[in-house]
Amino acid sequence: MPLKQAITGAEAIAYAMKQINPDVVAAYPITPQTPVVEYFAKYVADGVVDTEMIPVESEHSAMSAVVGAAAAGARAFTATASVGLALMHEVVFIAASLRLPIVMAVANRALSGPINIHCDHSDAMAERDSGWIQLWAENAQEAYDFTVMAYRIAEHPDVRLPVMVNFDGFIISHGVEVVETLDDDVVKNFVGKPIKMYPLLDTSKPVTYGPLDLYDYYFEHKRQQIEAMRHVPRVFKEVAEEFAKISGRKYDLLDEFMVDDAEYIMVALGSTAGTIKHTIKELRAEGKKVGLVKPWVFRPFVKSEFQRVLNARKGVVVLDRSASFGAEAPLYEAVKSALYEVAVRPQMGSYVYGLGGRDITPEHIRQAFEDAFKGNLIADEERYLGLRE
Amino acid sequence: MPELKGWKEIPIGGLIVEPGNSKQYKTGTWRVMRPVYQPENCIHCMQCWLYCPDQAIVVEIVDGKPKMRGYNYYYCKGCGLCANVCPKSTDPKTKQPAPEDKRAIVMKPETEFAEE
């Protein structure tokens, strides 16, 4: 029977990993990710998992260790945040390029500097072109569910790409919520045995990982990565459908909240979607036709889905929890680009909020919606919520 | 000598899934200078074969003895070691470089062969 537990997002992810029982976990502590691996280390110490746990000297080594483990044919996991992810950067690309089905939980935190330990999305956004699949959780439940689903997507023979499970630092990682966990056996059967491709430890079929790849073939290998990403929407939907059967919780590429008759739609990632949903309910009570689109899958960025939902709306307001200095904010840029070809292009507005963990309140969300109601959205203008002038 | 393959025909991730495949690697495209063999001057001493780093010297065994038969340009990088060690590259009397028509190996710019 599914069990309702009052746990943090970090514990929810560690609990999912306990049920998955990975072969190798290598990680380095960094706030606010640390409790994920702390909880998991306890499972290792208690002998409830068979995992080889590798404490490493840096995040660069953590990602390198899971790359080696995954190449060997092991199911490998790591977790990080912020500057830890930034230190991994080089090897993050290698993991995707070598087509290794690694899963990594990222407790999204602002990048330095000045140093800041609180939530924003600048860490994951800096890796958005690394070739990893990016799933974004709104709460601890989604963080748990995505962790359970992640290996099925990553290991699929048509995909073979690593998966990053993003969950907002502190807000999700340290906030206690009710999470409905599945039975160990149910998760074990759902995740199944690792699907191995070219494992280094199969000495009867020797392979070489990471040889020099110059102008004669590098381009072809990048094209394969592009193709792999194109298979992700289909595979994600298949896995989500199967997951719904065991959990009753239905996921898709986008979480569409009250969009059917919505004239104005907000687009946002992560935990802020919860505040937006609350505000939408209030605005609906006042007779405003508003809705939310929350990408559960941000990489690949499935343009056709955004085109389907956002075409012919009066206004689209995109909230970004990271800035792109000298350019448009990353989520806004992608949504705006997707809407270039729609039949009836909506008015669009870009709002940056919550950098370095700055709170976002229903009033801020209302303020952005009010701009939309007044027809006061300017596509090429970036505005800021909760910023002192 | 296989042509370069398309992205659908190769293993993912740049993996090498079979051993010994450097044979297929066409290092000949790196060549800037091409060694041209002039068999009428060759004494078949096999110095070129001994020194060639790419095993690009074609040898035929005739009556139990090796005979130089030119180059495998698929692999030859044009380094010029063969011409350098060839005894026919030096005039035996003057110890100066031999005139081109007396040499067994002459290095020529690859651009002269662009048509091939």
Quick rundown:
Chain A is of the alpha/beta class.
Please tell me about this protein's structure.
Chain B: One of its GO terms (molecular function) is metal ion binding. The complex is a heterodimer of chains A (389) and B (116). Chain A has helices at 9-20, 34-45, 59-72, 82-97, 122-125, 140-154, 184-191, 218-247, 272-285, 303-310, 330-338, 362-373; strands at 3-8, 24-27, 52-55, 76-80, 103-108, 133-136, 163-168, 176-181, 254-257, 264-267, 290-295, 297-299, 315-320, 347-353, 382-385. With 389 residues, chain A is an alpha/beta fold. In chain A, the strands form 3 sheets. Chain A has a 7-stranded mixed β-sheet, sandwiched between helices. In chain A, helix 4 links the parallel strand 4 (76-80) and strand 5 (103-108). In chain A, helix 1 (9-20) packs parallel to helix 6 (140-154) and helix 3 (59-72) packs parallel to helix 4 (82-97). Chain A is globular. The termini of chain A are far apart. In chain A, 51% of the residues are buried. Chain B has a single domain (28-112), classed as Alpha-Beta Plaits. Chain B has 2 helices and 4 strands, in the order βαββαβ. Chain B has helices at residues 47-51, 81-85, and strands at residues 33-37, 57-62, 65-71, 105-109. In chain B, the strands form 2 sheets. A two-stranded antiparallel sheet of chain B has the order 1-4. A two-stranded antiparallel sheet of chain B has the order 2-3. In chain B, strand 2 and strand 3 form a beta hairpin. The longest helix of chain B has 5 residues, at 47-51. The two termini of chain B are 16 Å apart. The interface between A and B is medium-sized, with 24 and 13 residues.
